[in-house]
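Form 7-S
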Amino acid sequence: MGFLVKLCITALALLAAAWVVPGIHLAAARGGATSRQWLALLGVALIFGIVNAIVRPVFFFLTLPLTLLTLGLFIFVLNALMLLLTSWIAQGMDLGFRVDGFVPALIGALIVSIVSWALNRLTSEVRE
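Output:
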């Protein structure tokens, strides 16, 4: 799957999380979005992808005993922390993305995972 397709899927998943979760704020999530807001959304998706590709494996390795102890449930916490880190970086870059706390990050990470999975399945079926 192409890089741009994955980036767009991540952007749509983040947009869905911003629509559903009250504690996640995205400039492009409410009302009519301008092209600048969509570029900001793609920037947030890019940051999220980089965080998940570089930082998440390190955190996963460091917290592997805790993940095994909780029978894998700690992965949800890890995903929420990656969303919070993305929010912190995006705020520093003034991209209009903010997560208000851990609970919205946890719910948002679940929504991003579900929407990303569904869209990836849909695009893989279209390609075949």
